[in-house]
From TrEMBL:
Residues 176-317 form the Nudix hydrolase domain. This is Nudix hydrolase domain-containing protein. The keyword Methyltransferase does not apply. GO terms for molecular function: ADP-ribose diphosphatase activity; NAD binding; NADH pyrophosphatase activity. PROSITE patterns: NUDIX (PS51462). Residues 1-33 are annotated as: Disordered. Residues 1-15 have a biased composition (Polar residues). InterPro entries: NUDIX_hydrolase-like_dom_sf, Nudix_hydrolase6-like, NUDIX_hydrolase_dom, Pre-Nudix. The lineage of its organism: Eukaryota, Discoba, Heterolobosea, Tetramitia, Eutetramitia.
Length: 385
């Protein structure tokens, strides 16, 4: 947090900590209060999985029996990595390989005889001299990169099949979406919402000198971070206000967002756990608590922010049971061994098998049990897609 952070409210109540669970009808034991205490568990599971994958796929030169063009048995050297579930080969080049071109030639020929399909080769930056060889001599294609590694791929059936259509290239494209989260942070005790203006954000047309108030939020670009965790973190980083995740109110899907990729922006309902504002002056220009009635009257908002305003007004006008119908608020960590988190609609609680293996649960798909964002039961006579 910046040392030059300013507080945009003179009220002494800004320094108060808010007692937990002022909104008990939403935060329940079944979702562990949505505080995500299992974040470290998810991160460690993911890290262990990555470490295991890299160890298993680390390039090793091994000797195998093969048959040459004259039908004679020979012993050749090939790269040995990790075999995947799709009859593919995963190799991580993280060490020097003697006679690399010869070994690579042997490997490809051997894999094609064995009818292997996709070959994935991860090259660490330390051994980047192998990249042009793989690209130019062995027809690999670049797939994606990060700070210290480049992944290249080759689809072998295109070479050994007489008919390329018999097994077309099924190597998936790299990630196609960005994910962001906005934190609708509400102090339920005082009926107030936390809003901010961005220092470098774009204003809607026609606003002129007016402040463009919005809910705080930002990118969820840590692959180990749950959407709810991302919203809580972004709110704290931008405003200094602590909060806990309640549920997802909805999301926006934007096309052509960045580098030709689309963007999912999840609108998360948060309960304020503190009130003191301490902004990040690099990102935020102003931050303030607003009474909800004043918020509902704001008309200088962009489309997404106006939908959020209407959703908040609708949510706050409903009773306890109707509020449950308007959120995806159930968070289950029983999938932690599978490195996953399951978010589902609270009204489906009685229709989901009460098992730890939620991935195998069967939900009741009766349209009368499905709800729109306004919390109204959909017409069971209509066939919904």
């Amino acid at each position: 947090m910046s040392q030059q952070a300013k507080t945009f409210s003179s009220s002494s109540e800004q320094n108060e900590m808010i007692e937990p669970n002022h909104h008990p009808e939403i935060i329940s034991e079944s979702n562990n209060g949505c505080t995500f205490s299992s974040n470290k568990l998810f991160s460690s599971v993911r890290q262990e999985r990555n470490d295991k994958f890299q160890k298993e796929s680390s390039a090793r030169v091994e000797k195998v029996e093969d048959v040459d063009e004259n039908g004679q048995k020979v012993t050749i050297q090939i790269l040995s990595g990790r075999q995947d579930n799709y009859n593919g080969v995963n190799i991580t080049i993280d060490s020097e390989i003697e006679n690399f071109e010869k070994v690579m030639t042997n490997s490809l020929q051997y894999w094609m005889k064995k009818k292997k399909r996709g070959v994935w080769i991860y090259v660490t930056s330390e051994f980047s001299e192998y990249i042009p060889i793989l690209l130019k001599k062995f027809q690999f294609k670049m797939h994606h990169t990060n700070e210290d590694m480049l992944m290249l791929t080759r689809w072998l059936p295109e070479t050994y099949n007489f008919d390329p259509k018999a097994d077309p290239n099924k190597i998936p494209k790299y990630a196609q979406h960005y994910v962001g989260a906005g934190g609708v942070t509400i102090d339920f005790k005082r009926n107030q919402i936390l809003l901010c203006t961005e220092r470098h954000g774009r204003k809607p047309k026609g606003m002129g000198h007016l402040d463009f108030w919005k809910v705080p939020g930002g990118s969820v670009d840590d692959p180990n971070e749950h959407i709810g965790e991302g919203a809580v973190r972004e709110v704290f980083e931008e405003t200094g206000v602590k909060s806990s995740f309640i549920g997802i109110m909805g999301f926006r899907h934007l096309f052509g967002f960045r580098f030709g990729k689309s963007d999912f922006y999840f609108i998360c309902l948060l309960e304020a756990k503190s009130r003191k504002i301490d902004i990040d002056t690099n990102e935020i220009a102003k931050c303030q608590w607003f009474d909800l009635e004043e918020y509902y009257k704001m008309d200088h908002l962009n489309f997404v922010q106006s939908v959020i305003r209407d959703s908040v007004r609708e949510f706050m006008s409903r009773d306890e049971e109707q509020r449950k119908q308007m959120l995806w608020s159930m968070f289950d960590n029983s999938l932690s061994e599978k490195n996953a988190a399951l978010m589902y609609h609270s009204v489906d609680l009685t229709h989901i098998a009460q098992e730890k293996a939620f991935a195998n649960a069967k939900e009741n798909t009766d349209p009368s049990l499905m709800y729109c964002y306004r919390g109204k039961t959909l017409d069971p006579e209509i066939q919904y897609q």
